[in-house]
Design goal:
The chain is an all-alpha fold. It contains 13 helices and no strands.
Length: 290
């Protein structure tokens, strides 16, 4: 039983919330009423859950020595020796094959996007994360591949404004993670050549302001776009903008005042303000575009 728990922790199921990006097209493309598209998008989301877990396992294996020197990451199953390297890699292989199989069931394009996502993730773990700025853009590209898998790969035309908003949001979350790491290092936590150790807090604060403004601006323009109004039959999506603004500011508060940002998925699940804001945004959006 304990081994099963360790294997599940190794898969990081709380990170599966990131794969909600795959559902973007289903919600905003009015495709939830089409059973074929709905099945394809949900299958693609499940495929990304499995493949992303496989990449997390590979990352934990690659980082096991470094994680042992970190006060929180040293508790990861591979770092503390609860799961052997061979067993972890076997789990990663099973997850990757299962995910690719589901991706192929969704569509050939979803499978290709999954392969690209896996290749980028492995390249990130073994080198790209050491390149300042490019590392965060690689993280953001993973989210963009999720959005594309749930839109164009299954035949749902995506909104260009929404794609741009997704890019700014994922860059914001990526730089927030680096800012959290850089702040921890500045406070004496130690560091190395990867992650936040190659950034300054001042640089990251500036980048975060730019990305946060980009998120709010692009989402606002999306709600006012003639194409959006025509697609959804309403101009009232603009009333969801205050929730996006509040959620962005709240995350800033957690990052700067509460030392958050190291794990966006965990921050979202633990902070009642973000949970309530996200639920309110989703409910209001669904009511307006139904």
């Amino acid at each position: 039983m304990r081994r099963a728990v360790d294997l599940l922790r190794l898969m990081r199921p709380h990170q599966w919330t990131k794969n909600l990006f795959v559902l973007t097209g289903l919600v905003f493309g009015h495709a939830w009423g089409d059973p074929i598209l709905r099945r394809a998008v949900l299958t693609a989301a499940a495929a990304f859950c499995l493949v992303s877990s496989a990449t997390y396992v590979v990352n934990d294996v690659a980082d096991r020595e470094r994680d042992r020197r970190h006060p929180a990451k040293r508790l990861r199953p591979v770092a503390r020796g609860a799961v052997a390297v061979g067993g972890a890699l076997a789990l990663a292989a099973v997850l990757a094959v299962a995910g690719m199989f589901l991706g192929a069931l969704a569509s050939r394009d979803v499978l290709l996007l999954l392969l690209l996502y896996a290749a980028l993730s492995v390249a990130y773990s073994f080198g790209l994360r050491r390149i300042v700025l490019l590392d965060v853009f690689v993280i953001a590209s993973g989210f963009m591949l999720r959005i594309l898998a749930g839109t164009e790969a299954v035949g749902i035309p995506p909104s260009r404004w929404l794609l741009l908003c997704g890019l700014m949001l994922t860059l914001f979350l990526g730089f927030a993670k680096r800012r959290s790491e850089a702040d921890w290092i500045r406070r004496g936590g130690g560091g190395d050549e990867t992650g936040g150790g190659r950034y300054t807090v001042e640089l990251l604060d500036g980048l975060l302001v730019i990305c946060a403004a980009g998120v709010i601006l692009t989402y606002s323009l999306y709600t006012m776009s003639p194409d959006t109004i025509r697609t959804h039959g309403t101009a009232n999506l603009i009333y969801t903008v205050p929730l996006i603004v509040y959620g962005t500011f709240r995350y800033f508060f957690l990052l700067l005042d509460r030392s958050g940002g190291s794990d966006p998925a965990r921050d979202l699940l633990r902070d009642p303000h973000l949970l309530l804001t996200g639920a309110s945004w989703l409910l209001l959006t669904l009511l307006l575009i139904r």
